[in-house]
Write a structure and sequence with these properties.
about 300 residues; alpha/beta; Rossmann fold; about 35% helix
Length: about 300
C-alpha cells in the first residue's frame, strides 16, 4: 500500500458534487496548500441536480439519467482546482443515489441515499477513516445545514462512523459542522439588499432563513482568503449546477476574498482549542491538537473511489 507523509489529516463528508466547493472549498484548498492531507468523501453523484447548461438537458434524471457521471467529472476538476487529490465516493461511485429535495418521490428510490442503511453506509466511511486516520472531520449539522435529506443523512452516517471508529480506537479528535453566523447573515441581508440577484430577496432578518448559528455557537473562523481564487475556480468547475450569472459570482466580484475565503464552523465533538476575538473563535481546525510529527507515514489509498 502506498503511503504519504502528513502531520495533519482532514476528512470532509459531503452529500453531492459541488457541496464541497460552495460550503468548504476555501478551507479545503487552504489546508491542502499548507501540506495537510485532505480527504473528500462524497455520498452521491448528484443525479437529481438542476441543470443550468441547456446543452446538458438530455442528461437529466427524466431523460438519459446520466447527469451523475457528468457531475463526477466536474468534481474531479473542482478538486484539482482546490489541490485535493484524495477524493472518494461513499461505498464506490454510484452506490448511493441523489435523493432529491425533501418530500419528492425520488426520496423513495431504492438506491436513494435517504434510504441507506445507517450502519452499512457508516461502515463504508469507517473503512476510509481506518486508512486515513483523520484528526479532524467536517460535515453538516443534524438539519443538513438547510434540510436536504442527503445532507441530513450525511450527518447521520458521519456521526455513526465516528462513533464506530472511536470504538476501534482511531476516531477523530474533533468533529466540526459547517455553519454561518447570524451576524454574517444579517450583514449580508443589509449589504446585498439592493443588488441584482439578491440571495436574501424577501428576507428581513436571519431568523427567517433555514440556517444560521449564533456567534456564541461558532467555534472556528477559518480565514482562507489566500484560497478564495481556488474556491471560485472549483465552483466554476461545477458549471452544470452553478450558472456563471449566479449571485455567488456577482457578490464575489464585489466583495472578493472576504466573501469567498472566510468559512465558519461549530464544534460538535472534541475540545475547543485556543482562539481569539470577542468569542474566542479558533483560527485553525487543528487548534489544541498535538498532531504527529511531519514524516509520519499514513496510508494514502487510491484516489477517486
Amino acid at each position: 500500500m502506498t503511503t504519504h507523509s502528513a502531520a495533519r489529516r482532514l476528512l470532509l463528508v459531503h452529500a453531492h458534487p459541488d457541496d464541497e466547493s460552495i460550503g468548504t472549498g476555501a478551507t479545503m484548498a487552504h489546508y491542502a496548500a499548507a501540506g495537510a492531507h485532505v480527504t473528500l468523501v462524497t455520498c452521491t453523484l448528484g443525479e437529481e441536480g438542476e441543470i443550468h447548461l441547456p446543452e446538458l438537458i438530455g442528461l437529466a434524471a427524466d431523460a438519459a439519467d446520466q447527469l451523475g457521471g457528468y457531475r463526477a467529472a466536474e468534481l474531479s476538476a473542482a478538486c484539482a482546482a482546490l489541490g485535493v487529490t484524495d477524493r472518494r465516493f461513499l461505498g464506490g461511485a454510484g452506490r448511493y443515489r441523489d435523493s432529491g429535495m425533501m418530500g419528492l418521490a425520488t426520496n423513495a428510490h431504492p438506491r436513494a441515499f435517504w434510504q441507506a442503511d445507517l450502519d452499512t453506509a457508516a461502515g463504508f466511511l469507517v473503512e476510509v477513516m481506518r486508512e486515513v486516520r483523520p484528526q479532524v472531520v467536517v460535515t453538516y449539522d443534524d438539519n443538513g445545514f438547510y434540510g436536504h435529506p442527503d445532507h441530513i443523512q450525511a450527518h447521520r452516517v458521519t456521526m455513526r462512523a465516528c462513533e464506530l471508529a472511536r470504538a476501534e480506537g482511531f476516531g477523530p479528535d474533533k468533529i466540526y459542522f459547517q455553519a454561518t453566523p447570524r451576524s454574517v447573515l444579517a450583514a449580508g441581508i443589509e449589504q446585498f439588499g439592493q443588488t441584482t440577484g439578491n440571495p436574501f430577496s424577501g428576507v428581513e432578518v436571519p431568523d427567517e432563513l433555514p440556517f444560521g448559528s449564533s456567534d456564541e455557537e461558532i467555534a472556528a473562523r477559518i480565514d482562507a482568503t489566500d484560497s478564495a481564487d481556488a474556491k471560485v475556480a472549483a465552483m466554476k468547475a461545477h458549471a452544470s449546477q452553478i450558472p456563471l450569472d449566479s449571485w455567488l459570482y456577482s457578490i464575489a466580484g464585489n466583495f472578493g476574498g472576504e466573501f469567498m475565503g472566510v468559512e465558519f464552523y461549530t464544534l460538535a465533538y472534541g475540545e475547543r482549542g485556543p482562539g481569539d476575538g470577542p468569542h474566542g473563535w479558533e483560527s485553525d481546525l487543528f487548534a489544541g491538537l498535538a498532531t504527529e510529527p511531519a514524516g509520519a507515514e499514513v496510508p494514502a489509498g487510491a484516489l477517486s473511489r
